[in-house]
Write a structure and sequence with these properties.
The complex is a heterodimer of chains A (about 220) and B (about 220). Chain A has about 220 residues and is α+β, with helices and mostly antiparallel strands. Chain A is built from 9 helices and 4 strands. The relative contact order of chain A is 0.14. A 4-stranded mixed β-sheet of chain B has the order 2-1-3-4, covered by helices on one side. In chain B, helix 1 packs parallel to helix 2 and helix 1 crosses helix 5. Chain A: One of its GO terms (molecular function) is glutathione transferase activity.
Chain lengths: ~220, ~220
């Protein structure tokens, strides 16, 4: 059992943090979430933004404060064996995860864009989402279409993909409705299988059964 | 023997840190500039950069995509990123923060004039924080010109590229941003730039590619 305690500081939304919430749950560590008053607490964060992860020892003394979503994800994933120690194996997962993040970022950019830039982003999103699905289906197939990207156990990219596809299955009113269908996992058998495998994982039981734990997460919002 | 092919555009962009890593690693490497967008469907993720690692022992090529994944892979393999997870995470943070600044710059360029002021303020705030974080790190390390210890690290190369991006590439699209950067440049950052350029692992590369001295040193 880990000797550390983790506090995730973020907003009370899915936002950028669902993969991280899944990672923290799957790792079995002692973790809680704080929703700092914003923008009041901005100056108290290392880089003026969230998320921030505070790692403390059992006495509650902070040992490490990290910011940058993907850095935090990789740190937890490596510490708790959800990302392999082997450099190459880790890189294979990271590139898939980075691609999910890129397409997610393009969509966020689209939601804030106007005019010509919006039109450019629609094309970009369509191209990148199409490529993403093709790459991820190939990876899942290459692994024997067993509901996991690598091996036969839950790993970092499984969780990142779950959060990604769940997000797009229920994206809000400003979302790119005309192209979201490209990411409809109910029409992609390999990804559907992945989603089911993640939902069935005993490591994630606390995440999927919680009524309202530390914020309205995917599991509780879309049940 | 391992060798690499680096596929990217002939620009600094998201590729220069990888070029520095490949050079500092002292491996055999070449660069390809695929015709774009014709070659887009031939890339695994439909994007550049792509790194191809080849061995002469008959094993299949490794093909990696995603610029920071490529960087971290090389940095870890060739000892420019520590094995210790916390030390590595601290270095990786610096790199990711730079991406935030660049994304905000892109936002600034693409929003209508009426919205530019707000984005400029956001950009300036982020830039302040990034410069201040790096300056503090360099000071804590005794202002040797290196971010960690007394040898070249991933953070050093990424920061050098970040500066190069502003003074050489971004200046082609906006004069305001590089001017702002120059005004905020601290002596510690200037020293890092000259130290990285003088490092034995990179000195030849820099002599071919050009120095940042005229941009970072006081006139």
């Amino acid at each position: 059992m880990s000797q550390h305690r983790y506090v995730l500081r973020y907003f009370d939304i899915q936002g950028l943090c669902e993969t991280l919430r899944l990672l923290l749950t799957a790792s079995g560590v002692d973790w809680t979430e704080e929703h700092p008053e914003w923008p009041k607490e901005k100056t108290n964060q290392p880089m003026g933004h969230l998320p921030v992860l505070v790692v403390s020892n059992t006495d509650g003394k902070p040992e490490l404060v990290l910011s940058e979503t993907l850095v935090i994800e990789r740190y937890i994933a490596r510490e708790y064996g959800l990302l392999p120690a082997d450099n190459l194996a880790a890189a294979r997962q990271e590139q898939l995860r980075d691609q999910l993040h890129d397409v997610g970022s393009t969509h966020i950019e689209y939601m804030h864009s106007t005019g010509e830039r919006s039109a450019e982003l629609v094309t970009k999103f369509e191209q990148d989402a199409t490529c993403l699905v093709s790459m991820h289906v190939a990876a899942l197939r290459h692994n024997g279409n067993n509901g996991h990207y690598f091996g036969d156990a839950l790993s970092y990219v499984d969780l990142a993909a779950y959060a990604f596809f769940k997000f797009f299955s229920n994206a809000g009113p400003r979302s790119l409705k005309s192209k979201i269908g490209l990411l409809d996992y109910t029409r992609i058998p390999e990804v559907s299988k992945l989603m089911a495998a993640v939902e069935a994982s005993s490591l994630l039981e606390p995440y999927f059964t919680a009524e309202k734990v530390n914020g309205p997460r995917l599991a509780t919002r879309f049940k | 023997m391992t060798s690499y092919i680096f596929r990217y555009f002939n620009t600094i962009g998201y590729g220069e840190t990888t070029r520095l890593l490949l050079t500092a690693a002292k491996v055999e490497w070449t660069e390809e500039h695929p015709e774009w967008p014709q070659e887009k469907p031939n890339q695994p993720f439909g994007r550049l950069p792509v790194l191809i690692e080849q061995s002469d022992d008959g094993s299949p090529d490794l093909v990696l995509s995603e610029s920071t994944t490529i960087e971290r892979y090389l940095a870890r393999t060739y000892g420019f990123l520590p094995m210790d997870p916390r030390q590595a995470a601290l270095q990786e943070q610096f790199r990711d923060r730079q991406n935030d600044v660049l994304l905000t710059f892109r936002e600034y360029m693409s929003v209508p004039d009426s919205a530019k002021e707000g984005v400029y303020a956001k950009f300036e705030d982020l830039l302040d924080r990034v410069i201040s974080a790096h300056t503090e790190l360099l000071r804590e390390n005794g202002n040797t010109g290196y971010s960690f210890g007394s040898t070249l690290s991933y953070t050093d190369m990424a920061l050098y590229t970040f500066m190069k991006l502003f003074f050489i590439q971004i200046v082609q699209y906006s004069e305001a941003m590089p001017k702002l950067f120059k005004a905020k440049l601290t002596p510690e950052l200037a020293k890092l730039a000259t130290t990285v350029e003088a490092d034995p692992l990179l000195v030849t590369y820099v002599s071919q590619k050009g120095s940042l001295a005229e941009y970072v040193l006081p006139k």
